[in-house]
Amino acid sequence: MKDLRRYLVLKYIQYLVLSSSNAVSTFLGLLGSLYTIIILQSAKVSSKSTAVLISSLAKADVLVAVSVVSEVVLWTFGAGVPSTAFTSALLQNLLTANSHVSCLLLSCVAFEAYLITFFPTESRHLRTVKNARLTSRIIWILVMAECALFQMDDLLKASSTSAPTHSPCVSRFHFSSAAAALLRSLSYFLGILLRIVNVYIYYKIFFSMSNR
């Protein structure tokens, strides 16, 4: 459990403290996720709702791994592998999806910690493995839908430059561009809100434990 706590601290710093990812935090995050996945396979770790959320958080770094490996392949074999606008946008959208999934799952872990600290008995029926799996599944579905919308918007941007002014492609571009812009704004403000909520939750937990 100490290792899992350290992993959560690493992820909180990576996604909710740092303004943007860097090579060091990304590398440490990937190593931490790999180690966490191995730990969670052990019989010593009980199958609880928190473990389910942490497992889903660790698996989210698969998106980062795919993006990093693809970047390395494109850089290594740059002359033989064409880097299209679609590929570049996809790799960036995968990183965005990873960030959004991780922030939401970390917030779920924080909320569960709040319930355990202040409402341990009353919240027991909510803190189940089934609910944790359902929550993780919903988060993944919503973020993947967001990623698909961003990818479609990037694809239409690339294709609209060569399309006639009154073509259906241009009309779809305006619609998807507006939807993507709105979703990006909502994601930005939601990210700020999640940071504030997480700080408040751990502030309350810290002083509650100190008073005890």
Automatic annotation (TrEMBL):
Keyword Protease part of the UniProt annotation: no
InterPro entries: GPCR_Rhodpsn, GPCR_Rhodpsn_7TM
Membrane disposition: Multi-pass membrane protein
Keywords for this protein: Cell membrane, G-protein coupled receptor, Membrane, Receptor, Transducer, Transmembrane, Transmembrane helix
Domain G-protein coupled receptors family 1 profile residues, every copy: 32-212
Primary site of residence: membrane
Keyword hit for Transmembrane: yes
GO cellular component, one term: plasma membrane
Gene3D superfamilies xref list: Rhodopsin 7-helix transmembrane proteins
Any one GO BP annotation for this protein: neuropeptide signaling pathway
Listed GO MF terms: G protein-coupled peptide receptor activity
Subcellular location(s) per record: Cell membrane
Pfam family, any one: 7tm_1
UniProt protein name: CXCR3 protein
Organism from which the protein derives: Bucorvus abyssinicus
